[in-house]
Amino acid sequence: MNTATQLKNDHDQIHELLDTWVKGFLAKDVATVISTYAEDIIAFDAIAQLQFKGREAYRKHWQACMAMCPGKPTYEVREQHIDISGDLGLAHYLCYCGGTDANGQPQGCWMRVTQGFRKQAGRWLIVHEHFSMPFDMESGKAIFDAQP
């Protein structure tokens, strides 16, 4: 297989991995979301704690996140860019992450996402994930109404 064909295959596999992640998130299926991560994932999520080390720690966090959001989740990706070099890949994009609360009212905000990938035994997995949102330096408060 030539380099261009391999690179296209790798891009397709990472897109498929991210599609699996989104489908799991939208179905509130923690097992599917977690299946996209490497055992040694290091995650910097926008909520709860500074970092999560390992798939099991991140699984517990995702279970808590899903429990906090009783309604139907939403997830929209914009400006996605993926770079690959050998067995490492990097994606960054903006996402609208939200859902409906217990009263059916929509909630959510735009966030920034960076994900690092490693190809292990022929399969791409997320080894690093970082969700963040901008904040106002003067007030110290997150900017929940930021728009792309």
From TrEMBL:
Alphabetical list of SUPFAM superfamilies matching this protein: NTF2-like
Gene3D superfamilies xref list: 3.10.450.50
Domain SnoaL-like intervals: 14-135
InterPro entries listed in its UniProt record: NTF2-like_dom_sf, SnoaL-like
Pfam families: SnoaL_3 (PF13474)
Protein name (database record): DUF4440 domain-containing protein
Gene source species: Pseudomonas cavernae
Lineage, broadest ranks: Bacteria, Pseudomonadati, Pseudomonadota, Gammaproteobacteria, Pseudomonadales
